[in-house]
Amino acid sequence: MHKKLTITIDEAVYDGLYAVVGPGRISRFIEDLVRPHVLGKDLDATYAQMAEDEQREAEALEWAEAFIEDAG
What we know:
Elements: H1 11-20, H2 26-39, H3 43-52, H4 54-71
């Protein structure tokens, strides 16, 4: 899930981001830069490793589908 964040930066920095990164890509660029500083460098690798575990993913899907049926 994504959250919207409003930040204030210098106009020259914004112009540079717009010119170098391009419109529609600034948020992703900033997120990629900030992520390792706030979540740790191993989190992405851990999620990727968990996703490769087919049995765990099947169990998670089963649990989620059962939960959805109960909620309905």
